[in-house]
Amino acid sequence: MEKTASQKKKDMIRIERESVIPVLKPKLIMSLANLIEHSSDRAEFLKLCKRIEYTIRAWYLLQFEDLMQLYSLFDPVHGNQKLEQQNLSPKEIDVLEQNFLTYLLQVMEKSNFKIATDEEIEIAHSGQYLLNLPIVVDESKIDKKLLKNFFAENPQQNLPDFADKYIIFRRGVGLDQTTDYFFMEKVDMIIARFWAYLLRITRAEKLLSRRSSSRHTKDPKKDDEITSEADGEEAEDLYVERIRLENMELSVKSLLSKTTIKEPTFDRIIVVYRRASTKAKEERGIFVKHFKNIPMADMEIVLPEKKNPGLTPMDWVKFLGSAVVGLVAVISSLEMPNADFWVIIAVLSTVIGYCAKIYFSFQQNLAAYQNLITQSMYDKQLDSGRGTLLHLCDDVIQQEVKEVILSFYILMEQGKATREDLDRWCEELIKEEFGASCNFDVDDAVGKLEKLGIVSRDSVGRYFCVGLKRANEIIGTTTEELVMRAKQGKQGNSS
């Protein structure tokens, strides 16, 4: 496609490829099995896949049980009762909660969740999508000791400024789009642009910029805006376009017509925090909340303990405009030679009534926005607490199984391979067979295969696998298979 100099920069967000294999395990296994030519080998491969899954699940069972037992002590609903039954000292409870967070972060890492950094949060907050009222956290309602103590003992790189109060884990990226008239939002945007113009011509903008310069030393979006000429560069990363009202040219036609806006989403978000203790009660509960498909610009909806939103620029203009109109009307009435007292009362009543109408309209809009937040939370919150942890544990197993099966299949088909070749071939197979891309975690996969005893290395470090039948013999019959055989035998006898 030919590119001209008149093309404008697009608002693009560059996102690193993640290690999550975006293919369902049953589909992955059946697709690989169908690529095997001989039916006998296909049957052995399917048996091996089951044995690999059963074995990996057994490996993680004890670790997951420890995690769930620890969380039962810090469950916000019933945790306090269990802590009281244990008769533990405060120091012992502190050790247990730090152990829980250690296990939790290990599971998060295995599930390929990453802690959102300040730069990612700033990019997300640099625009608006469907949520237009400012939303902030009421920090007085959030504990600041739990996470601060944990990260003091377990330092991590690129922690956000709010990491002492809550952590936001994110994984995966999608795209959400909405088509609507957005009439009120467009009017609000016009007012905001007019206000910015007034600040420029009155030079008040410089005074305000000095105050905010210390906080905004860098515009993160500038690193993420690429021209169309950059298409194809850095193919290893994913570029997602952001289409927002703020960047559109508004006219009478666009004001009265439908508009489509697009926003990248975080496919999964998990928020961890603890509420602040009060004089009457010491809080020990740890909240773990799980969300899906959260637009980056509306990420405020997942924040814990939110304050009620305030007025928008459009609301302020309405209030100030009404006050100015009322003041001018009253002064004009007083300056008339035959000022009528009842006329002045009528003007004041009209202005006051209009201001009241604006106020109640704002309250109605506020309720509507709170409704939007509540609805979004209801639609987008997957689970919380124990349900989230169970989901994470299963997620770890599914990913590990897919990595191991895919690596074994490649070695079975290609023969010997270096780590780099195996990594590249796995990624190519995912791309060719499933039309998806990921940053394959080859080290974890071959580590599991070596632990299973079905993959070894030769004298020069190349990986190679045993045959399918031999692999099944090495792993052996699993407990799950024995249970299934016993169950089938019992059903056969009863029939």
From TrEMBL:
Residue numbers spanned by region Disordered: 210-233
Keyword Transmembrane part of the UniProt annotation: yes
Transmembrane intervals: 316-335, 341-360
Keywords assigned by UniProt, alphabetized: Membrane, Transmembrane, Transmembrane helix
Taxonomic lineage: Eukaryota, Viridiplantae, Streptophyta, Embryophyta, Tracheophyta
Residue ranges, compositional bias (Basic and acidic residues): 216-225
Name of this chain's protein: Aminopeptidase
Keyword Membrane: yes
Domain of life according to the entry: Eukaryota
